[in-house]
Amino acid sequence: MSDIALPRPTARDVACGIVLGLNPAAPPPAARPGPAPTPIVALEHAVLPALRRPPCLVSFSGGLDSSLVLAVAARVARHEGLPDPVPVTWRFTGAPRAEESQWQDRLLAELGLGREWQILRAGEDLDLVGPVARRLLARYGPVHPPNLHVHLPIVELARGGSLLTGAGGDQVLAGWRRRPGTLRMRLGLFRARWLRPQPDLFPWLHPRVSRQVRQELRAEQRAEPHRLAGRIAWHLRRRDLSMTRASLAAVAADHDVLAVHPLCDDGFAAALAARRGRLRSPSRRELLADIADAELPPLVVAPRPKATFDEVFFRAATREFIRSWDGTGADETLVDVDALRREWSDWPVSSLTAALVQHLWLAGQRAGRQPTVEAPS
Question: Which pLDDT belongs to residue 377?
Fold first, then answer.
């Protein structure tokens, strides 16, 4: 196993399904000497180390962030005379909300990268306790995020080379705060937040614990800076993103792979902050248009529906596990076992219980009290 320290989610992280707080060891983005380059030039610098270590695979879903990274990597490879990056894409059966094939096909045709395109196919394979996740859990134990196993087959394909991802895009380019564009939208947001009863996000936790987590979540959302420069620096120090990057780095290092996340790169963060850092709550669409700056095909940053992946990870193996779970492994200072059983009695279950599914499944395996759940062939 890699010598890279693998950060572990705490018992409360697992119980509530959300990683809150800042990583005290994470420094703010490092300042670079001299004038800041444009954001797209900074991204080009960020992808170059991966391109120089072929094969350079790109985890490509067809979403905005992975499309941006792939387009920049293709541009740099051709300019520098390096091998083209290799897009790797999962396609799923029985998961219509995760469908992005139309955008994938169009973008790769636009970029001329279809020849080397690697398409991986999954039905039950990527379930939270399915065969791929079991391999990762057996080697590393519980990690954050609980869907990290989706990258394991991609890392294995990249052995000896490198991997580019769009990790960090949801935080650096989007964040939590939204700037409603009209008075009607602002009134709607006010009603949603203050006039309508808010459901308990964590009904499987003890009421006291649930209240504490909700209060801390609201406090953290309020703490996110409005201005872009502050938002970027703040998110890059959050435990959520720090743990994601460290987990990917550890799995990649075990396979002699260099994992690079250009949207988290210090140089890109500094360039974006220098160019647009004073904006208040800018949207992802605004920032992507500004980053592309007529240097990339318009299709790369064109608006598109955002896919959701619960249908990919909550499949038959998870359904069977939660049906047969005997209570083993729950931290009863945090989790109300009866309430968790109620939450798991209807389908679909809350996606916030994903980490709990894996933690409790692994606890049952270690205690020898849960049968190994095989995904259907």
Answer: 36
